[in-house]
Amino acid sequence: LETLAMARAATSVTCEQLIAFESHHMDRGAMAVIITADQTDGWIREANLLVRRGLRGVAVLLDPPSFGAEGVRSANETRKLLEANGVVTYVLKQDDNITAVLSQRLG
């Protein structure tokens, strides 16, 4: 989990761009699962648009501050923005049991 949280993309394509591009290839009712440590607004807007277009959105957020990152929004703040628009959201922090977090019943 720590390695994934500190991973860097090997492409210049942003999470926002990837969601925007791929979502156009998904049929209404399909599920998009987004796993990211990115806490920026662009991809959050795109994830919220997925739900408005009739897709089911699930976000698994890695919480950067729990891994030592500074100057970024916490995943709990991002969770609020996503859940307000119907995106089911899980937050993983350093040392969390992944199975336990992803097994929680939400909503």
Task: Report what the structure shows.
This protein is of the alpha/beta class. Strand 2, helix 4 (75-83) and strand 3 (88-92) form a beta-alpha-beta unit. The chain is built from 5 helices and 3 strands.
Write the SSE topology.
Layout: H1 2-6, H2 15-23, E1 31-36, H3 41-52, E2 56-62, H4 75-83, E3 88-92, H5 98-102
Parallel strand pairs: 1-2, 2-3
Helix pairs in contact: 2-3
List keywords for this structure.
globular; single chain
The structural class is alpha/beta
Q: In angstroms, what is the radius of gyration?
A: 13 Å
Spell the H/E element sequence.
HHEHEHEH
Strand content: 15-25%
- Count helical runs: 5
What does the main sheet amount to? 3 strands, parallel
What fraction, in percent, of the residue positions are helical? 25-40%
Shape descriptor: globular
**First-last Cα distance:** 25 Å
| Number of DSSP strand runs | 3
Strand order of the largest sheet: 1-2-3
Low-confidence stretches: none
Summarize, please:
The protein is α/β, with parallel strands linked by helices and 107 residues long. The chain has helices at residues 2-6, 15-23, 41-52, 75-83, 98-102; strands spanning 31-36, 56-62, 88-92.
